[in-house]
Amino acid sequence: MSACKATLPDQLAAFELFDRCSRRELATISGLYTELGLRADRPVCRQGELGRQFFVVRDGTFEVDRDGETIAVLKAGDWFGEIALTLRCARVATVTSSTPASLLVFSPREFMSLRGTCPEVAAAIDAAMKDRLEWIRAMSLSPARSGTTEFGGSEPGRCPRKTAVEARLQR
Fold first, then answer.
1. 93, part of any domain
2. Most buried by CB count within 10 Å: which residue of 1, 51, 122, 128?
3. What is this structure's pTM?
């Protein structure tokens, strides 16, 4: 008896981000990304750099650091990169592989196609982005971070203030 290998759409459907997509949408999405394999301790993106990709963790784990402090650990099915890509601002955190891992990498054009292919994916990305930006804003305004402004600073390339973020999310 031979083992059946799951198809790309079936593999995507296992991730929460894609679990509400139709078979047709999953088939389209499976042709949008490039897969990237990484060894442990490899930075994927760095805080302050311009964002040019959206990432979905296929396997492995990743640490998310902001201002030198670990703020999250990502695992299979989690995603990142939507803030810088959507708002065209600097990355708000550094993401580094903790273990050997692989990512689904979407270019800006592929990211826009992804958002247009499945409305549920776009809604999930927007909701997560809003939550993440609210958390960043709260951290930036906390007494421990009194030397920074909203979203960690006002230098060129930093994320805009909350009102502009909310306006873009409501489009």
1. yes
2. 51
3. 0.80
What's at 156, amino acid-wise? Answer: P
Helix (H) or strand (E) holding 128: helix 119-140
Query: Domain total for the chain?
Result: 1
Please classify residue 163 by burial: count the beta carbons closer than 10 Å to its beta carbon, then call 0-12 exposed, 13-18 middle and 19+ buried: exposed
Tell me the one-letter amino acid at 33.
Y
Residue 2, domain member (yes or no): no
Interval 7-27: pLDDT, tens? 778 889 999 999 999 999 999
Specify which residues 94 forms β-bridges with.
65
Nearest-angstrom CA–CA distance, 167 and 79 = 23
The tokens describing 56, both together, are 């979905």
Structure tokens at 107: 């270019």
